[in-house]
Design brief:
Length: about 350
């Protein structure tokens, strides 16, 4: 592995970290709780990179010093320098790999909670029974990681299978760990309903979605036009003679709201802005909901057996993830929520793919 890394990005990160360090101590920024919290969050994200870069620079400096001693007249000193160089080469390679991973663009959803949707696909009642076991597996995994679990909806079959299960898992790094579970899960085993002892193949779809957040509505002055006009209809001489009515046009969405209920133009404007904020919330939340539904549809496909991402083969006692060719021969432990090895293998494969694409 290379001991070198392009330092332009790292220098920029250090400069940004230094600027943030100064800003979070600024009294005017501290007074704005929301802005201060956002700056602190960004600073906390950059700090490990800055520390790792400092570790890299020290190791690089030590390596340079050691190489200068390789040609020392003292044979014992030269031998020690050679040993030090070999050790530092390994350390530098490790640090460089860690820095490359740290500099990969972050998935903005990684820190979010997740909503899991599990549904049987091909295989009838056997698929429904396996869906129940997958629900149990993910909940046991969540419990091992001390995440909170909240059932949203559950629809069972008469034989104890699951027609549909939707539940929320909340805690630290939930989505980053579970996001690789989305897709078609195939099970191969002898169903309890099988009288001839034949192995059947069934499938269950799993969708792991970042928890939809409530949208924040921000209305910028440049995005709106406010018109005043004379109120119409009943209301007396005051309303008929003053331009107290308000019309607000929101250019990005084309939403128009009006208000002429109040006698005061100021109050009409306040009311109109409140109505606009509500309509914008509905508009943007609707977009979020559509994105959410589209994401789910893209994750699970049709549920056909050929679309499987993973196979659970009970006769052979193995679990194979076909995306990375990774197999575990510990299906019982896996079904009891011991997913860490699989999650880590998928994470490393994803990081490797992204690093290769960045080079």
């Amino acid at each position: 592995m290379s001991m070198q890394i392009k330092t332009e990005k790292l220098d920029a990160v250090c400069a940004r970290f230094k600027a943030l360090d100064e800003k979070v101590q600024d009294a005017s920024v501290i007074a704005d709780n929301k802005a201060w919290a956002e700056l602190c969050r960004e600073r906390a994200e950059l700090e490990p990179i800055v520390e790792k870069y400092a570790e890299y620079k020290k190791a690089q400096s030590d390596y340079n010093d050691a190489t200068e001693m390789l040609h020392a007249d003292d044979a014992e000193l030269a031998a020690l320098a050679k040993e030090e160089c070999d050790s530092l080469v390994d350390s530098l390679a490790r640090i460089v790999d860690e820095l490359k991973i740290m500099l990969l663009p972050k998935d903005p959803n990684d820190g979010k909670n997740a909503v899991l949707e599990i549904r049987p696909a091909a295989g009838g009642e056997e698929a429904a029974l396996f869906a129940t076991e997958l629900c149990r597996m993910y909940k046991m995994y969540a419990e091992k990681r001390r995440w909170a679990i909240e059932d949203i909806s559950l629809n069972d079959t008469e034989l104890g299978g699951t027609k549909e299960a939707v539940f929320r898992i909340s805690g630290k790094d939930v989505f980053s760990c579970l996001k690789y579970e989305s897709g078609v899960h195939r099970v191969q085993r002898v169903p309890v309903t099988e009288t001839q002892g034949r192995v059947h193949t069934s499938t269950v779809t799993v969708a792991v979605l970042p928890e939809a957040e409530t949208v924040d509505v921000e209305i910028l002055d440049k995005d709106i036009k406010i018109d005043t006009y004379r109120s119409s209809g009943a209301g007396g001489q005051h309303i008929n003679k003053t331009d107290s009515a308000i019309r607000i046009t929101h250019f990005p969405t084309g939403i128009v709201v009006t208000c002429q209920d109040q006698r005061s133009q100021t109050k009409n404007k306040e009311r109109a802005m409140q109505v606009l904020a509500t309509k914008l919330y509905d508009f943007y939340q609707g977009q979020k909901d559509e994105e959410y539904a589209s994401l789910r549809k893209g994750q699970v496909g049709t549920g056909d057996r050929s679309e499987r991402i993973r196979t659970y083969n009970f006769p052979q006692g193995r679990v194979t993830d076909h995306r990375i060719g990774f197999t575990l021969y510990s299906i019982d432990e896996f079904m009891n929520g011991d997913l860490d090895k699989m999650v880590e293998a998928l994470r490393i494969a994803d990081q490797t793919r992204r690093l290769e694409g960045d080079e």
